[in-house]
Write a structure and sequence with these properties.
The complex is a heterodimer of chains A (about 525) and B (about 350).
Chain A lengths: L6 E10 L2 E11 L3 E6 L6 H8 L7 E6 L2 E3 L4 H6 L2 E4 L11 H6 L9 H15 L14 H14 L4 E5 L7 H16 L3 E6 L2 H7 L2 E6 L2 E7 L5 H9 L17 E11 L5 E11 L2 E6 L6 H8 L7 E6 L2 E2 L5 H6 L4 E4 L3 H5 L6 H5 L14 H15 L15 H14 L4 E5 L7 H16 L3 E5 L3 H7 L2 E6 L2 E7 L5 H8 L4 H5 L1 H14 L3 H10 L1
Parallel strand pairs in A: 3-8, 3-9, 6-7, 7-8, 13-18, 13-19, 16-17, 17-18
Antiparallel strand pairs in A: 1-2, 1-4, 4-5, 9-10, 11-12, 11-14, 14-15, 19-20
Helix pairs in contact in A: 13-14, 14-15
Chain B lengths: L5 E5 L5 H25 L4 H13 L2 H26 L7 H18 L5 H30 L3 H21 L24 E2 L2 E2 L1 H18 L1 H11 L1 H6 L4 H28 L10 H11 L4 H25 L3 H23 E5 L8
Antiparallel strand pairs in B: 1-4, 2-3
Classes of the chains: A alpha/beta (about 525), B mainly alpha (about 350).
Chain lengths: ~525, ~350
């Protein structure tokens, strides 16, 4: 082989204990090329990249950078080789300015602030990055923080860039902007690896794709010769349908009515700002929004874990704001909540399934002791029903895979036959199969007449699964619309602060709406309710 | 960029048996290292080790003395275990023991005329309340102002210690003592009875052991402690009153330690001195961790520690080694046993030995 690659990984193997995360993986990237690394969670993408950035050391195999074999033993080595990694979770010092973060950890002569600022601005300019060097990180949006991360590695002269799921936290518009920047870098001769599991992004940005499955490199294909279907097949190992059902239910009625709800966080900043909407039975209400737009507070206020500053949540004209979860149950409303942080909030990581089943029901037993018998039965029932894979009901849940953990949590919440089921990012971190199982479970609940609230981040899924979509931005409701009337781009604009009326256009909006109502049954009743609200 | 000489690699989770073997190996290595230390002092390690064992267990009296050491240590270890299970770093067992002793001593000194069993029960309750309240203070500040409990409980130790000094120098000073101040010896009526020649605190300790074991593993409150310790978010999600659990558990933790103080003062010392806790509160932390917060294991570790302590004092008198040598030995053993935790989770790979499958 005469061609010189920016990165060449040969037969890389890495095991964690008995788990082989990377099994003889081969990967090549050229200069001036964007390579997408595609694979489900747990397929070994991040492990491989962590070896390039010096966080792990391969057990065997060799890494060649610019044609020379190297041994990367620390992030410093990696940096010296011109490799820059942008992690999924930003590694920035919050109280520092963008500039301070950029020069942090870089050696060499210290420039005075003025010339440094000019240098950073110039660097940013050459790649089309907009940045305010003196702005503090805590004042920045997610997309701005990412820009700082990118500049940080560019400032250190990185020729090879690794981005770990960079678009997970971005709106469609921000993603486009990022891609433009990446293309610019590519033109300047950088080698770029982008990790993602969003297929359409892979198709949009990359030149070649390497697919990993269960720690093995399955194939490398030229993007231009591929489509979503083929990529999915390679990723999952068999053809699967990517459609999500959306059964329409009749007799939807409002079960919870949220009126002028305002919620403050513990630091007195506004989390939810005067929002009103209603939750209906037999319906999935999708909630979209950039991370931290008030989703967490919304869930917790609905379930009684957080107290609202003002406003009301009405259940048959009774206000449940200010009531504890126990009091809400006593009113006869059974609510279940699948929180975002499964192991940190929904489950106890070090306990087995049995003890986790007890979490919501332990206090119901009579006397001072807990009853583990029924909990054990429930755990075994869930294993059968949902196909949970675990060596035993007493094994700590933290040792289970993400999909199984979510099944335990969702299973427990569904088993209490709720009237309202609130789920926050239920498929985050799950592989495709597990994700579809979760969608099915949610649809099943909807068919039973449960009112489902689905907080999601993948807009494609949100639009396909939900009946209605509510978009939050900085704690305000930008609009509540039927999902089939919205496009991804419209939701993206609303997520960044545009009102539904502006996005949809007030004029032709009416016309369109009435058109649709002709052939969509059940739409009429919706219409009426929306008018009232 | 050369490959480093040694790399640390995470291991697969070990089974119980492998873990046990590793721990036993650690103890063996500790004995070897301790033996080398003894050799350096010019003594025969086998003789010394044998003396430690026989010194602690050679006669009825020796065993009684060993058990006497074990009683407050066992009780205090159980006390801190309750707090540690909740991840509340109660470093204040020392102070809680002292306050338990102080509260109990009040009745021993000023109500010694009461019916004996009534007095014992009252002293028991007073000890628990004294220690409990002393444990409640940092817990209250923690829930109210989120203060750091490690520092808070540690500082309270010194306050408690000086409360005794104050009482000894002032209000409770024994008028009969000449020269230096001390608190009077308790009336016989106010001291604990003996069972098998040892004050019956050992029965209290064993009963507490069983009760706490059941409390932690079977009761709702024990379940709450585990959940709060693992994640307060989860506890809140499950509808638990986290503050209430913290306050209640720290009261109990302090109360158990306070009982230890009461038992030590009225059973062993038969007076109140500044040495009523004597570092037991700190040793208890080590015992609790070595036993992985498991009550039966705490009993085992306590017995081993007491043998080491009693045996060392025999070595000290019969071989003329200073008591510091015993401390060094204890330190070496702890070093190895705590150090082996690293080997349970990680292994070390040397350069050039490429393939490392676990």
């Amino acid at each position: 082989m005469t061609e010189q690659y920016a990165i060449e990984c040969r037969q890389i193997t890495k095991a964690f204990g008995s788990v082989v995360a990377n099994d003889k993986i081969n990967l090549t990237v050229r200069y001036g090329e964007i390579m997408a690394l595609l694979g489900e969670n747990g397929s070994g993408k991040t492990t491989l990249m962590n070896m390039l950035s010096g966080i792990y050391h391969p057990d065997s195999g060799s890494i060649l950078i610019g044609g020379k074999e190297v041994s990367i033993n620390s992030p410093v080595d990696s940096k010296n080789l011109g490799i820059g990694m942008i992690h999924q979770h930003f590694k920035l010092v919050d109280v520092f300015s963008a500039m301070d973060n950029i020069i942090l950890g870089s050696h060499g002569r210290r420039l005075n602030r003025k010339s440094l600022r000019e240098k950073i601005e110039e660097l940013g300019h050459s790649f089309g990055l907009e940045i305010e060097p003196e702005k503090k990180i805590y004042d920045m949006s997610v997309s701005e923080k990412q820009t700082v991360e990118i500049l940080k590695v560019l400032y250190r002269g990185a020729q090879i860039l690794i981005l770990d799921e960079p678009t997970a936290v971005l709106t469609p518009q921000e993603t486009e902007k990022l891609f433009a920047i990446l293309r610019r870098m590519k033109e300047q001769g950088c080698a770029i690896i982008i990790i993602t599991h969003k297929l359409h992004e892979v198709l949009a940005i990359s030149d070649r794709v390497t697919i990993l499955r269960k720690g093995k490199s399955i194939d490398t294909v030229v993007t231009g010769e591929c489509d979503e279907k083929k990529l999915t097949e390679l990723m999952v190992g068999r053809p699967i349908s990517l459609n999500i059902d959306r059964p329409r239910m009749e007799n939807r009625e409002t079960i919870l009515k949220v009126v002028d709800l305002t919620v403050e966080k513990s630091d007195k900043t506004i989390a939810l700002d005067d929002i009103s909407f209603d939750i209906r039975t037999g319906e999935i209400l999708g909630v979209a929004g950039v991370a931290g737009s008030g989703q967490k507070e919304l869930c917790e206020t609905l379930t009684g874990l957080m107290v609202a500053k003002k406003g009301a949540i009405l259940y048959h004209k009774e206000n449940i704001v200010g009531k504890s979860p126990a009091e809400i149950i006593r009113l006869g409303i059974s609510m279940s909540f699948v929180p975002e942080d499964r192991l940190g909030m929904g489950l106890v990581a070090s306990m087995g399934m049995v003890d986790n089943m007890l979490l919501k029901s332990y206090s119901e037993a009579k006397g001072p002791f807990v009853e583990r018998g029924p909990a054990r039965e429930l755990a075994e029932k869930l294993i059968d029903k949902l196909g949970i894979v675990t060596p035993g009901v007493d094994m700590p849940v933290r040792l289970m895979s993400g999909g199984n953990v979510q099944k335990v949590l969702l299973g427990r919440e569904i088993e209490s036959s709720p009237q309202v089921l609130i789920t926050a990012y239920p498929v985050r971190g799950l592989d495709i199969n597990s994700s579809y199982t979760i969608y099915e479970l949610l649809n099943e609940q909807k068919k039973k007449g449960v009112a489902v609230v689905y907080i999601g981040e993948d807009l494609d899924v949100l639009l396909e699964l939900s009946d209605r979509i509510m978009v939050l931005c900085h704690g305000q409701v930008m609009g509540i619309e039927d999902a089939d009337r919205l496009t991804k781009e419209q939701v993206g604009l609303m997520m960044t602060g545009a009102r539904a009326e502006e996005v949809l256009g007030a004029g032709d909006d009416r016309v369109q709406k009435s058109d649709e109502c002709m052939d969509a049954p059940g739409c009429v009743s919706d219409e009426g309710e929306e008018e009232k609200a | 960029m050369k490959e480093p000489l040694i790399r640390v690699v995470k291991k697969a989770e070990l089974g119980r048996k492998e873990t046990l073997i590793l721990r036993l190996e650690a103890i063996l290595l500790a004995l070897v290292a301790g033996g080398l230390f003894i050799l350096c002092l010019g003594q025969n390690p086998f003789v010394i080790y044998q003396t430690i064992l026989t010194g602690a267990l050679r006669s009825g009296m020796a065993i009684q003395a060993t058990v006497k050491i074990a009683i407050p240590l066992l009780i205090a270890s159980l006390g801190v275990t309750l707090a540690f299970k909740m991840r509340f770093w109660n470093i204040g067992a020392e102070g809680q023991i002292i306050m338990g002793g102080v509260f109990a001593s009040y009745f021993a000194l000023f109500h010694s005329g009461w019916n004996h069993w009534l007095l014992v029960i009252v002293m028991f309750i007073a000890g628990a309340v004294g220690g409990g309240l002393w444990g409640l203070i940092p817990a209250w500040f923690k829930t109210k102002y989120d203060t750091n409990e490690t520092l808070f409980t540690l500082m309270l130790n010194y306050i408690a210690l000086n409360v005794i000094v104050f009482l000894r120098e002032g209000p409770w000073r024994d008028p009969g003592s000449q020269g230096y101040a001390k608190i009077a010896r308790f009336d016989k009526n106010a001291s604990l009875d003996r069972v098998f020649g040892i004050q019956f605190g050992w029965i209290i300790a064993l009963v507490l052991l069983v009760l706490i074991w059941i409390y932690m593993n079977r009761s709702k409150q024990g379940y709450e402690i585990s959940v709060v310790g693992e994640s307060q978010e989860t506890a809140r999600y499950a509808g638990m009153n986290v503050k209430k659990v913290i306050l209640r558990t720290m009261f109990l933790s302090g109360a158990v330690c306070g009982i230890g103080g009461m038992v030590q003062a009225t059973g062993s010392d038969v007076t109140l001195t500044t040495a009523v806790a004597g570092g037991v509160g700190f040793t208890a932390i080590i015992v609790a961790w070595l036993a992985q917060l498991n009550p039966p294991a705490i009993l085992l570790v306590t017995i081993l520690f007491s043998i080491l302590e009693k045996g060392s004092s025999v070595v000290q008198s019969s071989f003329g080694l200073s008591s510091d040598c015993a401390d060094v030995l204890q330190g070496i053993i702890l070093f190895f046993i705590l150090g082996c935790e690293l080997f349970i989770r990680y292994k070390f790979v040397f350069r050039g030995k490429g393939d490392v499958r676990a």
